[in-house]
TrEMBL record:
Protein name: Magnesium-transporting ATPase
A UniProt-annotated Pfam family: Cation_ATPase
InterPro entries listed in its UniProt record: ATPase_P-typ_cation-transptr_C, ATPase_P-typ_cation-transptr_N, ATPase_P-typ_cyto_dom_N, ATPase_P-typ_P_site, ATPase_P-typ_TM_dom_sf, ATPase_P-typ_transduc_dom_A_sf, ATPase_P-type_domA, Cation_transp_ATPase_P-type
Subcellular location per the Swiss-Prot or TrEMBL entry: Endomembrane system
Keyword field contains Translocase: yes
Gene Ontology molecular functions: ATP binding; ATP hydrolysis activity; P-type sodium:potassium-exchanging transporter activity
Membrane topology: Multi-pass membrane protein
Recorded family membership: Belongs to the cation transport ATPase (P-type) (TC 3.A.3) family. Type IIA subfamily.
Amino acid sequence: MSSQPLSNADIAWHTLDLAKTVDLLSSDAETGLTESQVAERRQQYGLNELEEAKGRSSWEILLDQFTNIMLLMLIAVAIISGILDAIELRAGDAAANEIPFKDTIAILAIVVLNGSLGYLQESRAEKALAALKKLSSPRVRVLRDRKFSEIDGKDLVPGDIMLLEAGVQVAADGRLLDAANLQVRESALTGEAHSVSKNANLVVEEHTPLGDRANLIFQGTEVTNGRATALVTNTGMQTELGKIAGMLQSVESEPTPLQQRMSQLGNVLVSGSLVLVVLVVIGGLIRVGGFNWVVLRQLVEVSLSMAVAVVPEGLPAVVTVTLALGTRRMVRRHALIRKLPAVETLGSVTTICSDKTGTLTQNKMVVQRVDLVEHHFTVSGEGYIPQGDFQLQGKTINPQDYPDLQKLAIACALCNDSVLQHDKDGWSILGDPTEGALVVLAGKAGVDKEPLSRQMPRKGEFPFSSERKRMSTIVSGEAGFEMFTKGSPELILECCQTYQAGETLAELTPEIRTAILQRNNDLAAEGLRVLGVAVKPLNDIPPLEAEETTERELTWLGLVGMLDAPRQEVRDAVKRCKEAGIRPIMITGDHQLTARAIASYLGIAQEGDRILTGQELQQLSTEELEQHIGEVSIYARVSPEHKLRIVQALQHRGKFVAMTGDGVNDAPALKQADIGIAMGITGTDVSKEASDMVLLDDNFATIVAATEEGRVVYTNIRRFIKYILGSNIGEVLVIAAAPIMGLSQVPLTPLQILWMNLVTDGLPALALAVEPAEPNVMKRPPYDPRESIFSRGLGSYMVRFGVIFAAVTIVMMGIAYNYFPHWQTMVFTTLCIAQMGHALAIRSNSQLTIELNPFSNPYLLIAVTATTALQLMLVYVPPLQAFFGTNPLTGTELAICLGFSALMFVWVELEKLFMRIFSARHSVALPLD
Ligand code: ATP
């Protein structure tokens, strides 16, 4: 069978009936395409990819760099400095060995360099985003060569049969083959926020608008409910989404609160420095009593230097790099950050609300118990291998001898959407692990799902949802139609009237009901996840909306108890979490006793802790819920909408909440949470879209690891802000002191200041950004996310350090000015070298430098050594001397610089020592970071 060359985009698929559609696409609804057909079609249609919507052009990115206010100010400084040089040149005052317009050229070079760095960073960021998009490209379940498998969305070709279920993002346009309760949100295409119902059996008019083509599904839309299979009609740029260019949502890269505060700080500093310039010029002119060209020139030079000194030119780049590195470290620990602000705020999380299944447990279910009313079986066997023994009171039995057990096994196999398969890697399941465990159980009882589902094909269904906590399928067999139902035992039991006893039916008396519920509790208390299974003969296939009336008067088959072992690493993570002042909370759809058993094992709940069920929660008012929220560490039998209420109540109590979720209906709670966390493996596309972070391994321990990284990032950001801004304050004060002290020249040129701010401060600051975690990082309570970056002593430290730094340098400047010829180079060198000692001392707030392992941050050692070497080159290499306006220092001059520089290191160390003694005497806590 070879495929016909089609121009699929021109065909009005919605007007065709099913048979015609399958025929036109040369496909087969039973078997799917063959591998050779797939290869042939991939040649013909290409990959199922949308051409990237054009982002900003390189030119635009480049131009955007120069709208930064700090760079604009530097450009202004360069121009004014150029004008001064030009006037001097015309007047013939310029020194013979001076390079004309040196400052202007150098500042412009730094502007270009800074701009190019920004440009490179942004282009990199765009590339990283594109890579992220690829990573999050949806996976699709398809039927090919009679087998179900999961492939990348981009590998779909027209004619493929794809399976859709609630939560998936549709990866290509298609014609529905069958659909059960299918609802799709098509807002990406039609703008309509509500979900629309779909129906495979319809054929609609040619001119029906897109939103009403109920028999088609479209790429980029989201399945919000139900299940379906569909035949792919169009892929790539031929899909409806592809036709509307530029509609692709881009992955968000909003500035973090810190970046916003930094750009505000930039504005304040720039305006502040402009005010300083005006004040210095006017004040100076008034002092000399009128206009004087020489004085004006000097004042303008001082002002320009101060303007450049006050602005931390290197800071934005260091912040960006730190956040980027933080994101990278988090990915290495399996946490993918989708929204950059999360990197910074993760460290402030006070409460982690986690799902149970898959996050706290392994999500590898194995049925261990089957409880019929009259027989309680124990089942053995490992993993998904459909072989194992049934034991009754310690004796192995033959499951074929128990007709009620056989009936339950048939129900487990047919009321089921997952597939058990065997390949070279052994047995595995495709689909939900709970259902997988049931297919395996059926296999152990001698019921093979695949041939059975051909004998008894599915004719209808009421799909599973976390709200309904049950599902039913309707099959047709020799004895007519039959409905199998499974779900939460309490709910299923309520719908039953009779029970299966051997081959016959018996009445469910109140005593038997109580006994079943007791058994359910017993199994749940052992930590097992328990489902109830039931059956009902039907005369015909009920309509989709008749679930309430149909799922009644059922016959009870039995309880199935499966073990979902807790993840071992989570126990330790919970402990770390508690030590770090973070409260873990379990939220689960499962039974409260199952939840309690697992929560107790993991350390989430202690003896006597309160459990709140969804039903109880429903009856609480918002105020009541807020009152109780502090005592509850387990929420059981909850629905996704309860999650939203829980987050809101916690937030009202001032908590900073991280919340996990995987289903479509979890999206509102994920959006509401301060950090919404989606599951990378089991999560639906919709939940990922709503999240701030995706757990690549679905593991609770990863959340704790990411929180730790968040704390490290925040601490490091505070550390280098302290380092950079403290130095800026020092520089400004030193420059301002010069005219006050009556010095004849400006101590630092704009070029030297730029060098310090960008290179000699910038390199060590970058190294401080990768400082490893301090030992106490997860032993202290979280900080308030709304706190100012300058809180907890950071602001006062900066000012204190800046003033002392300036005082030490000014004393040195006074001595040098009077006794040494190269006083300006001495000031320049002292400011640079003092910062090297500062960088080493600032690594810890509480530990002295000698107590730290110097090699635990080798980057800092490299940065300090390289920066010192560069500074010495500037002082001693002649071409650099000419360019930066330095002079070679004599041995004595250099020794004086080093001596004064060392004072700053000693100061910071003494401060730590003083704090330590003070806090020990007065029993106050040291300011941890
Ligand atoms: P968590 O929220 O911790 O992930 P969960 O995965 O158990 O918990 P749901 O998937 O919403 O939460 O399941 C809720 C309940 O619905 C289960 O306890 C079970 O009784 C029932 N249930 C789960 N899966 C199925 C299924 N495939 N068919 C029928 N009932 C199910």
